[in-house]
Backbone:
């Protein structure tokens, strides 16, 4: 499998990054032991890069996979807290739950960020930079769906890594268009930022166009690609594909197309609008006083699930 260095950080990772979001409670809510077995299979298969977040609640299966294999991958995590002390606590939580003394990458988690992000999160960014100075974090980054923020990130000299959303359909991009995001990524590359890409399959919406989606991501440059995986067969398929091996023998239906989607249980919806606030893709509106999810905009991230106080949003 190809490996890439992330900007000037010295961190080298496999092209295929294990995305831990889908196995957590926002989506599949896999049993910890089963989740750990899937990650362990990825590590044994040669994947050296795992992406997670405080809100994904997937630290424990990652830790168990490390303990089971003795393999410590490069780990990127993130938190959406805004203040200095909160970010310190978020990093401490990650280290404790992962069983680590240091972590490779920690991002400002800002799916819905706008042009004021780096002012609003100044305290959190300062905390990450101080922890980097102490050696607790190797690289500081930002994770965002906004083309505007990704463009601004190129100008923030303190940032080492940028984790943008992009796919050939432009699904999920906010703060600009697909060409805007392409330009923003190129701008970050030219500024020597380390880059890796998320949502290239648009949360499963374009899984039937897997080859086209991967080819598009690769056309943007030599960047690692984060893919969510929730079964051992998915791990095997992706590892084979990224190793340019024959994948014709795989029959798992989830590899042929995704029917995953989120739905509002209207009788439980209290019309509070909190799901609209948490949706990173502007896919939720109110219709007849109830939340409605537009499937043409939804990228199946599941951020709306914990945001709903009545648990009215369910993956189906």
Residues:
């Amino acid at each position: 499998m190809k490996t890439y260095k992330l900007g000037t950080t010295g961190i080298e990772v496999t092209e295929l990054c294990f995305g831990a979001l889908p196995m957590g409670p926002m989506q599949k809510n896999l049993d910890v032991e089963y989740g750990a077995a899937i990650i362990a299979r990825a590590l044994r298969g040669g994947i050296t890069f795992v992406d997670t977040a405080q809100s994904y609640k997937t630290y424990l299966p990652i830790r168990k996979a490390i303990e089971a294999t003795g393999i410590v991958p490069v780990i990127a995590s993130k938190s959406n807290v805004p203040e200095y002390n909160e970010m310190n606590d978020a990093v401490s939580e990650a280290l404790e739950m992962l069983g680590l003394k240091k972590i490779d990458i920690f991002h400002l988690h800002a799916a819905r960020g706008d042009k004021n992000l780096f002012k609003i999160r100044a305290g959190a960014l300062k905390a990450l930079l101080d922890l980097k100075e102490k050696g607790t974090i190797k690289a500081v980054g930002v994770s965002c769906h906004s083309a505007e923020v990704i463009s601004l990130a190129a100008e923030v000299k303190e940032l080492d890594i940028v984790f943008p959303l992009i796919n050939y359909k432009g699904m999920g991009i906010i703060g600009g268009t697909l060409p805007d995001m392409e330009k923003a990524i190129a701008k970050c590359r030219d500024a020597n930022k380390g880059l890796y890409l998320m949502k290239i399959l648009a949360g499963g919406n374009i899984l039937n166009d897997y080859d086209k989606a991967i080819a598009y991501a690769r056309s943007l440059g030599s960047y690692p690609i984060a893919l969510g995986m929730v079964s051992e067969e998915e791990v095997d398929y992706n590892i084979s594909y990224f190793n340019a091996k024959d994948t014709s023998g795989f029959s798992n239906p989830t590899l042929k197309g995704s029917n995953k989607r989120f739905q509002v249980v209207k009788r439980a919806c209290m019309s509070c609008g909190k799901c609209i606030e948490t949706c990173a893709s502007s896919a939720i509106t109110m219709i007849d006083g109830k939340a409605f999810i537009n499937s043409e905009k939804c990228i199946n991230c599941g951020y709306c699930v914990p945001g709903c106080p009545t648990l009215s949003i369910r993956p189906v």
